Amino acid sequence: MLKKFELVGKSLEQFQGNRLEFTSKFYEILLTVHPELRRFFNNKDLLKQKKMLSGLLIIISRRWRQPQTLASILRRIGGNHFRYGVKPEYFTIFEEVFLMTLEIQMGSNWTKEMQQAWSQAFDEMIEWMVEGYEEEKNQTRSAATFVLRHKFS
Length: 153
Prior knowledge:
It is a single chain. The chain has helices at about 1-15, 20-35, 45-65, 65-85, 90-105, 110-150. It is an all-alpha fold. It has one domain (about 1-150): Globin-like (Orthogonal Bundle), CATH 1.10.490.10. α5 (about 90-105) runs antiparallel to α6. It is globular and about 60 Å long. The termini are far apart.
């Protein structure tokens, strides 16, 4: 696991000074290739979204050596996405567009080894996000059931 995250971390270092440029390109591609996802951003400040993604890239680049910490952060993000109405299948769309953006932005520095490392890393990161998503979904259901039972008892 650490080998792939090391390669992921190193590839992120290339965007140290221009993460916002990278995240801007990511959202441009995402909303062009998947216009159906625009509804999740209609009432959102897109600059804030770009900055949050940029912050996540910083976390990944700094925490890849601490998988438990990274997993905890991504579970929380997955739970947040449940509350936003984002479905887990959209996480793979994120991966697809993120890898596409990396390839475009890195140009000749993008290698097959990096693509494989990122794909494997995304498998784990998405798994953690789905865990957080499911936890939040179950907690929300439990809370709703509790309220309904007590309201109608």
